[in-house]
Amino acid sequence: MTIEDAEWKPPIVTVTVDLVIFTVRDGDLQVLLIDRGIEPYLGYPALPGGYIDKGETLEEAALRELHEETGLDARTLHLEQLHAYSDPRRDPRGRVITVAYLALGPDLPVPVSGTDAAAASWAPVSDALAGRLAFDHAGILRDGLERARSQLEHTTVAAAFCVEPFTISDLRHIYEAVWGFKLDPSNFRRKVTRTEGFLEPTGERYVPQIGRPALLYRRGNAAALSPPLLRTSQLSSAGGNAADRTMPLVPQENAGLAGSD
Amino acid sequence: MTIEDAEWKPPIVTVTVDLVIFTVRDGDLQVLLIDRGIEPYLGYPALPGGYIDKGETLEEAALRELHEETGLDARTLHLEQLHAYSDPRRDPRGRVITVAYLALGPDLPVPVSGTDAAAASWAPVSDALAGRLAFDHAGILRDGLERARSQLEHTTVAAAFCVEPFTISDLRHIYEAVWGFKLDPSNFRRKVTRTEGFLEPTGERYVPQIGRPALLYRRGNAAALSPPLLRTSQLSSAGGNAADRTMPLVPQENAGLAGSD
DNA sequence: GAAATAGTGTCTCTAAGACAGTATGCT
DNA sequence: AGCATACTGTCTTAGAGACACTATTTC
Q1: Which single residue of B37, B86, B108, B115 has CA 20 to 30 Å from A2?
Q2: Contacts of A34 in chain B (CB under 8 A)
Q3: Residue B246 confidence class, pLDDT cut points 50, 70, 90
Q4: Hey, what domains does chain A have and what are their CATH numbers?
């Protein structure tokens, strides 16, 4: 399992952390990308990331990079390890293993410029997957998308996308943006309100410009969703279906809280 | 995202692969452990593992180690990446990041001796977790156990534990050993037989010494189980099989939601 | 009033839990 | 025969999908 022989020199490996940072903006699931300022893949969009420092864990490195790229506080969002990628040819310059992390957060301010000259910006996931990404980042992004979609089924992380306080519609729009299809508002409400600890009513309400005012909620304590909220439906509504083409089907014009702060 | 500056020397990191190899023997979920022959943790049981070689992926390294430790062919069993562990203090000799893999296989012959002098042997998971393990391997084992339990809910990997051909009871015993409680034979049968592609009838049957003969099956093509077979029941039934003993051994450590490490 | 969205109620259907009852081998 | 296990059937209930209906706001 580890260093069994003092004479033996283990292969030299560089370890980095890459971040798949998702948010929902304008009804779209978006991912934070930087534009590479150097070779290889000069000019290509890439996932933000960086080296792991001596003395820090991978998660600490991920949090540090996250803060550097977005100026975001760790406590605001959800972070989880996604997968380690180790193809020896994934970086033409040498042996670089990367551990990808998935971060989910509410609609963030346009990100501050990253540590290096590269500019960071949000891009709809559908656009990002339609084009080319540096390294194996397209695969990492796909894995992150699938993980996020799956997490919404089994946990309450969807609330991590919402700015508090939020309405049930806001929460539903998160599911619709991530899964790529619409949900029945009535059944969705029944599910989330009857799941103990998912939502905590604030007693206040949000008065939109049109339509009936909605009650506002905060995140509850529950982390798990059991039974899960499975994505089996794909309600036939105009707009395509899920898959990787995602986004064209999001709620038209979100008048709710989602975009405010 | 990777090597941005040729002058800059990234921290030196060693990368290893550790294996959580599960099988079901004598109605118990068992894990393959080696006895450490050197310091640190001399004499402690540990998960098998080793360095990643130049030019191979982590998964290839895991398969190689698996073969070295058990003499097992890759095709016989299920292998999946579990998690990367990176606490800077997890190995007293230096900076060692390990990527753990989960391997599930049918009741294997007693493992061949490992590559080093250390002897490999099967131990019930409950015993392994009751005692001390080297490094952070107890935590890795716990994560592996939870992952295996969860996989049984959502996939057909339970069949990977079975030697073909197998009966539905054999399959149920796998679930019972991994989950640690008994299942209703009737309802279990209904679930697995009605899941398209889980089981493929061979037409043959197994004639036990006592009881009615049972039909024999092979693994089908289906990988996913939807709807899932959730472990919500915990049927109380006497009958001192492994099932009853396995249960209390897991501190509920959730590696799922908040990134771990 | 109309338009629009929030929220309630309810019918149906699937699938799981419980468990009775039948089948088929063995000694 | 008696036992043990395999297998079938059925009643009940939890929960999801579908969707009609009511409520509350702005214009």
Answers
A1: B108
A2: 1
A3: very low
A4: 14-152 (3.90.79.10)
Kindly report which listed range (A6-10, A147-151, B230-234) carries the lowest average pLDDT score.
Answer: A6-10
Residue of B nearest to A61 (CA): B86
The identity of residue A204, as a single letter, is E
Helices (H), A33-91: 58-70
Q: Is A59 exposed, middle or buried (0-12, 13-18, 19+ CB in 10 A)?
A: buried
Residue B256: C-alpha distances to residues A98, B78, B119, B252 (Å): 20, 21, 33, 11
Tens-place pLDDT, residues B184-221: 999 999 999 999 999 999 999 999 999 999 999 999 99
The model's pLDDT over A77-101, given as tens digits with 9 standing for 90+, comes to 899 999 999 999 999 999 999 999 9
Give the residue carrying structure tokens 């069949």. Answer: B159
Give yes or no for a contact between A87 and A136, defined as CB atoms under 8 angstroms apart.
yes
The separation between CA B94 and the C-alpha centre of its own chain, rounded to angstroms, equals 28
**Residue A132: exposure state from Cβ atoms within 10 A (0-12, 13-18, ≥19):** exposed
Find residue B80's DSSP bridge partners: B102
The residue assigned the tokens 């360095």 is B51
Residue A132: pLDDT over 90: yes
B260 at A interface, C-beta within 8 A: yes
Per the CB < 8 A criterion, the answer to whether B242 and B25 are in contact is no
Q: Do B49 and A18 touch (CB under 8 A)?
A: no
Whether pLDDT at A189 is above 70: yes
Ordered alpha helix ranges (H), B88-209: 125-130, 137-154, 168-179, 185-194
Of the candidates B226, B233, B154, B245, which has an alpha carbon nearest to the alpha carbon of residue B186? B233
Report the alpha-carbon distance of residue B25 to residue B157 in Å, rounded. 16
Closest chain B residue to A4 measured between Cα atoms?
B38
Contact yes or no for A53 and B88 at CB 8 A? no
